[in-house]
Amino acid sequence: MLFQKSAQSMIALLGFLVAVASAQAADPKLANVTILATGGTIAGTGATSTTTVGYTAATVGIQTLIQAVPEMTRIANVSGEQVFQIASENMSNEHWLTLAKRVNTLLAQKDVHGIVITHGTDTLEETAFFLNLVVKSKKPVVLVGSMRPSSAISADGPVNLYNAVALAATPDAAGRGVLVAMNDQIHAGRDVSKSNTTMVDTFRTPELGMLGYFQGGKPFFYRQVTRKHTTETEFDISSLNVLPPVDVAYAYANVGPTAIDAFVNAGVKGLVHAGVGNGSLPAKVRPALSAARAKGVVVVRASRVGQGILARNGEANDDELDFVVADTLSAQKARILLMLALTKTNDTKEIQRMFYTY
Ligand code: SIN
């Protein structure tokens, strides 16, 4: 018993000494990168090493993720925080506000040079776009996930995490908006989408293109986004605890007004319509959207197609209907911009300006 107690104290002391040593070991020549962990498959585990579906996301803590990639200590002084531990289908507006506030607080510190956010891939593109609009710093912010759980053969999490830290540690990543590091590629948070249910090369920016590559663990940039982001936006979430309710209604052959009417009756302030083609409005849907607008709901026309500019006054007379168009944003990203826009104004001309700005 006595032996057990003194062994425990010895282990605790050793742990403390290791913590002190690693704190002191911070190399002043390296950037300080904070990893904020939110869960997802990158922190997931399966029953066996071949379990790559039907595993449990968000089980492994941030310290274990860091310890699994000791090579990171050669490129940055890495520290970690567990912000949430969730699968990303459960990411909510409130999670986003909490995360964004933490990112802004950390980046305001002189001794934090970049942030990496580990995240489930299912809604990673949405969190990246939200942060792209509300982070108030030019310092690098990089989202990363994985398609295979940490317990899998050839798990993609460790190399993705290493690349993400390399990206967050490079001054070249500053001022480029929130970035996504997956599968040896660098994507813009504004434009990237998850495009495949299970493949490791699922993150794509098909037509506008990715920003660069990783090679040998080093980032190389070839493009930059032209839309405004981070410090250039007008959105300030520092005093917000909720965002205005906005939902997405999806179009398909034979669709009726049921979902739109339900969203309006539930009290949405904004509605994104993921129309067919160039945002066309089915005959049964147009009066429901028009009625929503008459009740004060701001309507944004987007497309379910996934690429291309949504033409204003093309498939519908937006001037007459007083609708907004989503430009090139997907419906799920248009929802985010509309929520933030509604924190500033209900004026549809102003909101349309925002969609052409960000
Ligand atoms: C999730 O999004 O949390 C699960 C799926 C993934 O991370 O790939």
From TrEMBL:
EC number from the UniProt entry: 3.5.1.1
InterPro entries: AsnASE_II (IPR004550), Asp/glu_Ase-like_sf (IPR036152), Asparaginase/glutaminase-like (IPR006034), Asparaginase/glutaminase_AS1 (IPR020827), Asparaginase/glutaminase_AS2 (IPR027475), Asparaginase_C (IPR040919), L-asparaginase_C (IPR027473), L-asparaginase_N (IPR027474)
Pfam family for this entry, one: Asparaginase
Signal peptide as annotated in the record: 1-25
UniProtKB keywords: Hydrolase, Signal
Source domain of life: Bacteria
An example Gene Ontology molecular-function term: asparaginase activity
SMART domains: Asparaginase
Domain Asparaginase/glutaminase C-terminal: 246-355
Positions of the L-asparaginase N-terminal domain: 32-225
Enzyme class: hydrolase
Active site residues of this protein: T41, T121
Keyword Metal-binding belongs to the record: no
Family under the similarity heading: Belongs to the asparaginase 1 family.
Protein's name according to its UniProt entry: Type II asparaginase
Organism from which the protein derives: Massilia soli
Lineage, opening ranks: Bacteria, Pseudomonadati, Pseudomonadota, Betaproteobacteria, Burkholderiales
